[in-house]
Amino acid sequence: MAGRHFLQIPGPTPVPDRLQRAMHRQMEDHRSSTFPAFTRSILSRLPQVVHQTRGEAFVFPATGSAMWEAALVNTINPGGRLLAPRFGQFSHLFIQTARNLGYQVDVLEEPWGEAADPARIEAALVADRGHEIQAVLLVHNETATGVTCNVEAVRAAMDRAGHPALLLVDGVSSIASLDFQFDRWGVDAAITGSQKGFMLPAGLGILYLSEKALARVDQCTMPRAYFDIRAMRANNAQGYFPSTPALSLLYGLDEALTMLLDEGMDNVAARHARLASGVRAAVHAWGLRSCARRPEIASNSLTAVLVPEGQDARRVIDLAFTRYDIALGSGLAELAGKVFRIGHLGDMNALTLAGALAGVEMALCDAGIEVPLGKGVGAALAEWRVTA
Q1: What is the CATH architecture assignment of 17-262?
Q2: pTM
Q3: Residues 173-193: pLDDT tens digits?
């Protein structure tokens, strides 16, 4: 099909031409005497993306999901007890990963479309008088439902409880898109991947650890091999990696960091907030609802849109793809057929997003969900004009 394909899933996101050019290079010797300067260019700037001044950042040839495992096996002893709210597919998978590794997880169930409740986390930690719970697992931005949690409020709840548990945060669909204050929020591990806000193909797992978490690494007795932070840390200190790095992706990451930091992380977050406000205006104009149950928890990196009762969101997604060359995210698990998801993160601006919303409108009408053509797009344009 002629023209641009609109990749509007919540990840992987479109790769800018600038990053494609950066990755298009011959392989090289990753043990050469000149390689450490390149490694340090990346590792010294990664913390700026999340406002981290203490602790360290690590990059693995892996994915964001793999960093769940890396964070756990380097800080939590075998059979350790954990606490986790579950309010969507990715919080469910974080919990499942921990259980597959033999950890005990106390789960706080929340309705899908809601966020983690700091008060319930505080109550659970207060009740843990023996401090058996070693960490709280939290998904910052639940990609399945388009809901963002208040990490700062969760840390405040933990502090009020006077509990020493670590705070392990999945930031896969938030880091490099939404505001993320690693130091100020008291995060101990932040987990992400290359394929969303960093605007790269999948293949890099990125893990930020606090000084408190790093202190646990040497004490932890959990078996580790590929994800052993001790080996990664020792090699990084010399400017190298313990195994063969994903060179093409690292060159892309180096350039992505330049793009993000030149724009400024506050401006990156503001841009995503502005784009999200237009998408939410379009959804409202269509007469539809977002999966996020409250405006204050609606994500700025994606919107999960509920279709009316009796309609199947999978038909909207298929028609959008086959007729209008736009890829929308599908509903996951209990939301299958109930929602379609519009990604608005990464290499995105108002004009490209307006084209995507036009494709969604046509697909909705084709699926028998009658919306006035142009009304949602017009509402988004009106929103973006006043926030420009």
Answers
A1: 3-Layer(aba) Sandwich (3.40)
A2: 0.97
A3: 999 999 999 999 999 999 999
